[in-house]
Design goal:
The complex is a heterodimer. Chain A is α+β, with helices and mostly antiparallel strands. Chain A is 21% helix and 33% strand. In chain A, α5 links the parallel β8 and β9. The longest helix of chain A has 18 residues. Chain A is elongated and about 75 Å long. The longest helix of chain B is centred in the N-terminal third of the chain and has 34 residues. The chains are: A alpha+beta, B mainly alpha.
Amino acid sequence: MLQVQVRRRIGALDLDVGFAVEAAGILAVHGPSGSGKTTLINLLAGLERPDSGRIVIGDRVLFDSASGIDVKPQARGIGYVFQDCRLFPHMSVASNLRYGRHRGERGADFDQVVALLDLGALLARRPRSLSGGEAQRVAIGRALLSGARILLMDEPLASVDPERKAEILPFIRRLRDVVTLPIVYVSHAADEIAQIADRTIRMENGRLAAPSPAADAGSRLIAVIRGHDADSGLTVLESPLGRLLVPLRTEPPGTMVRVAVGAMHIEPIAAADAEDLTVLPMRPKRIAV
Amino acid sequence: MLTAAETEALALSLRVAVWCVAATLLPGIGVAWLLARRDFYGKALLNGALHLPLVLPPVAIGYLMLVALGRNGPFGAWLNDAFGVSLAFTWQGAVAASAVMAFPLMVRSIRLSLEAVDRRLEAAAATLGSGPPRVFLTVTLPLIAPGILTGAILAFARSLGEFGATITFVSNIAGETRTLPLALYTMAQTPDGEAAAMRLVAISVALAMAALLGSEVAARRVRRRLEG
């Protein structure tokens, strides 16, 4: 379980985010640049400090402003794959990979990680001579071998060309499936997220945004307002799907409106009457004229 | 080849220069780290005081040292009582004089390379489980090695050429404090000393060239280790 409730103001960013998700699998954090994605995982890793809040991974409290807990980054057991790789330039690839091994925790097996990420031919090389995709694979391996219990990845494919992307994405999926390591994956690329994410949260201006309609299996409908029922606080819409009830609107009857309906909001209630199937939107997220 | 007096001056110069580097290396790294990484009250003052030897006449530094560290000076008397160490008019005093003169050069070059270190690499090392001491030893120190080498070379060179502070603080005693520049000065003051002075100039040139070549080789080796 990954429980996060953090607040941090830095420069123009006012980050205030709270969520609790099952840690297993890949949690994608997406959103436009400047929305606070990187700040959020820096807070998880302990590289930045929340002004207030609480961070719990599994059964371990890493930060809690109320009780003054602030575990140092080196003690958090979190592997961080940076957007810019950050390989140590004065060490060979093999030394980079082994750098985090001193923790003494049961990390992944060296040979297994080398095989998994196809690093065998790179071990004697220096980071300077690696391509962007190779460097990123080494960075992933280094984080894996440090005995991390959770992996944070900050736009690991942002500086990588499309072919390399296609080359690395399968490796990340393999991490999830073979190493069974929970991964928090930051990206603003929808195609990457669609390929690997098990769960998604979206950030906008330092806040969690509602799940985006585009990522949803629902659809947008054009509907006409038939009437209002002030007593129940509902407005009746006529749509190609049938009659919809939504929270009270102010537009007069006869107005055309666009309704975004997510799959999760729809529930058949009159399946018995097959000829006149009615659906009720449970919680329409967005209704726009 | 070399006369006994020349050998003596050359050996003394080398000994003083080596000790000067040894004495300024660790304090230089420490002070450079303080100035590059820490904010504290009086930082500007420390920085200013540190650079004084670069701008003051060396004779003024030597005189201040004589006053403070001479046998009757406040620190000199204490050193003598507590440790039985006397700096005035000894070769150790010559080391102290050139160390004071060389220290700002040492600190400056190490500080510059510390400020150039990519702090993000240190953050990465922390996420890989390294506490601050290990981060410093395994990441920061190797990355500033070129700066440390430059500082050491500058300090060594400064010590070889040091004259004013040395002659003022520890005088010009053959076999004890008469380094190459002081021997050269002595010969230049001696009637019919031109030939001997010229020989000392030649020795100084040879020594300087050897030191420069050696440092070039060392710098190349460090760079290769760093960049692969």
